[in-house]
Design brief:
By secondary structure, the protein is α+β, with helices and mostly antiparallel strands. The protein has four domains: 133 residues, Beta Polymerase, domain 2, CATH 3.30.460; 110 residues, Hydrophobic Seed Protein (Orthogonal Bundle); 55 residues, no CATH class; 52 residues. It has 19 helices and eleven strands. Strands 3-4-5-2-1-8-9 form a seven-stranded mixed β-sheet. A two-stranded antiparallel ribbon has the order 6-7. Helix 9 packs across helix 11 and helix 14 crosses helix 16. The longest helix is centred in the C-terminal third of the chain and has 17 residues. The protein starts with 6 loop residues before the first helix and ends with a helix.
């Protein structure tokens, strides 16, 4: 079987094999190619040591050389190239305490988390599949490589990844893998919150978000405020990660601010959630004045997301609000300070200074939102003077 990989990544493999080393693309990129999905990135595994890798390529970065990983830049391709290795214990439940470089590709594949990721490929030698990975891919089954309990105790994040893959790929979890994941799920609280957040963000965009109900139901995520196992309809929302993740956290937490804080979500997403909550608290009717007031606070794309959220998750149709917002924009109706036909310099010339200018502009836009005919320089100057007096 031939897999379609970009030329620059083929060149990485060829340069290594031309020097007498084994080299394969490995893991998620092979899995995705076999599933007909375009990979986000490509990882390479090789029999070459890190120092040998660096001699083969002109541009490299020592990103994880202690663990055998060198980042190689080949044309416009950037990939992590890692020496075949076996691993010892995971004292920090994240990285192996030490690694041993090996010459056997099977030993390298045996350290990986799930069978669907324990597969590699080289255009010349084809696919190497030591753990029936292709069979599990074909049947849509998730199972660990080797003993499930050992894999999860090494790195409990694999438990969250298990349910993330179940969501994103819509795969079933093998019984023995599921039982081990639930048994060791209390270990998840020892993992960095950022790593958990990354997996949950991906899971929220999956085809089968409801698969996460099992993990939530056993209390594994209570420590970060995710405790309500009642996810529904999220998979029907559009593909926006922000909307999906907001809906996920809204459905699973008593107060969305708790997982936002505990999982250390980025500021941009926190702002998105604040805007969605603002709409939830303030979008009560569908008048033009109300919609204009809301549009002062949030972007129309947020309103579109909120309308969809209400329709899909709450089964409430408020699409008229989005139609009204679009009409306001199409008609160039004023609803922001920048839309006023007066500016700070105009107010300065009238004798307003400092914070007065900002306050007057706020006052004027509120007037114009209620009556757009007031948005002329003459009318606005008159109102400003009257306000001062």
């Amino acid at each position: 079987m031939k897999l379609n990989i970009p030329e620059n990544y083929k060149n990485v493999l060829k340069k290594l094999t031309d020097m007498g080393f084994q080299a394969y693309i490995v893991g998620g990129c092979v899995r995705d190619l076999l599933l007909g999905i375009t990979p986000d990135d490509y990882d390479v595994t090789t029999s070459a040591t890190p120092q040998q890798i660096k001699k083969v390529f002109q541009k490299t970065i020592d990103t994880g050389i202690k663990y055998g990983t060198v980042t190689v830049i080949e044309g416009d391709a950037v990939c992590e190239v890692t020496t075949f290795r076996s691993e010892t214990t995971y004292s920090d439940m994240r990285r192996p305490d030490s690694v041993e470089f090996v010459s056997d590709i099977k030993s390298d594949l045996s350290r990986r988390d799930f069978t669907i990721n324990a597969i590699c490929y080289n255009p010349d030698t084809g696919i190497i599949d030591c753990f029936n990975s292709q069979n599990d891919l074909h049947n849509g089954i998730l199972r660990t490589v080797g003993n499930a309990e050992e894999r999860f105790k090494e790195d409990p994040l694999r438990i969250v990844r298990l349910f993330r893959f179940s969501s994103t790929l819509d795969f079933e979890i093998a019984d023995e893998t599921y039982c081990a994941a639930v048994k060791h799920s209390p270990l998840i609280k020892n993992i960095s919150r950022e790593r958990i957040a990354t997996e949950i963000s991906k899971a929220a965009c999956g085809k089968n978000v409801e698969s996460f109900n099992s993990l939530i139901g056993c209390g594994a995520l209570n420590f970060c405020g995710i405790e309500n196992a009642n996810i529904q309809n999220i998979s029907l929302l559009n593909g926006s990660q922000n909307l999906r993740l907001y809906a996920f956290l809204k459905a699973t937490s008593k107060e969305i601010s708790i997982p936002l804080k505990e999982l250390k979500m980025n500021n941009a997403f926190k702002k998105y959630c604040v805007d969605m909550e603002y709409l939830s608290a303030n979008m009560k009717t569908l008048t033009v004045v109300e919609i204009k007031t809301l549009m002062r606070k949030v972007d129309i794309s947020i309103i579109a997301d909120y309308v969809e959220f209400k329709k899909i998750v709450d089964e409430t149709d408020i699409s008229e609000a989005f139609k009204t917002a679009n009409k306001i924009i199409s008609a160039n109706e004023p609803y922001k300070i920048s839309h006023l036909n007066i500016c700070g310099n105009d107010l300065s010339s009238l004798g307003f200074t400092g914070k007065q200018i900002g306050s007057i502009l706020e006052f004027l836009i509120e007037k114009v939102i209620y009556d757009k005919t007031l948005n002329t320089k003459e009318a606005l100057i008159k109102i400003a003077k009257e306000k001062r007096n």
